[in-house]
Amino acid sequence: MLKEIGSIFSFLTIIPTGSANLETVAKYMYLFPIVGIAIGLLVGSIGFGLSFFLDPLIVSLLVVASLALITGIHHTDGLADFADGLMTKGTKEKKLSAMKDLATGSAGIVAIVLYLVGLIIAFSLSGGFELFLAILLSEIVAKYSMVLMASLGKSASVGSNSPFVELMKNRKKLLVTTTITLIPLIALGGTTGMIIFAAGTTLTLFLLALSTRSFGGITGDILGTANELSRLASVLVFVSL
């Protein structure tokens, strides 16, 4: 089991803890929230420490930079591709083609800028232990959103997403990942944690419906989009409560 957990760490971060074999990662996708906990603890600790010495906006910038560094901007790229595909007019096939295009279009650039600016501003509105909680809880929900989407969605095309969608149709796995997610959310966040969970789940279901209508299903880029936007939504809800 430790070897498999190492594989999903390698897949979701730049930390070389194992071979990120796609089939193995897909089989143990339901453990993604554990990686979210680890990332949240690490980056949250950085934000917590820096918040006592630096201006909130600078701390927020460093927190977002840390997240980008640790995750390798892996899923942020998916958000850009999703925006390009979504804004392309025409058939589902044409939209999928635009999403797979290696060149980032104007929609993708705008989406990334808005996402990063929103994340920096949101994180800057909290400090100390509150910032630590915002980072930790949002990262757990972000990873859960990918598992939920893979469990409920269907593949828009054969690709890197296919193993995840096929192997996450086991409802017992979804129950396990939901339990792993809810325990820290409730224990540390209480009512706020439950509201964040509800917000992330609602956003994921909305993205799933939108993707099914626009692309005929989900892709790896759309799973990455769920991760990024659920993180942002969670932080925004946290600082608003």
TrEMBL record:
<keyword id="KW-0808">Transferase</keyword>
<protein>
    <submittedName>
        <fullName>Adenosylcobinamide-GDP ribazoletransferase</fullName>
        <ecNumber>2.7.8.26</ecNumber>
    </submittedName>
</protein>
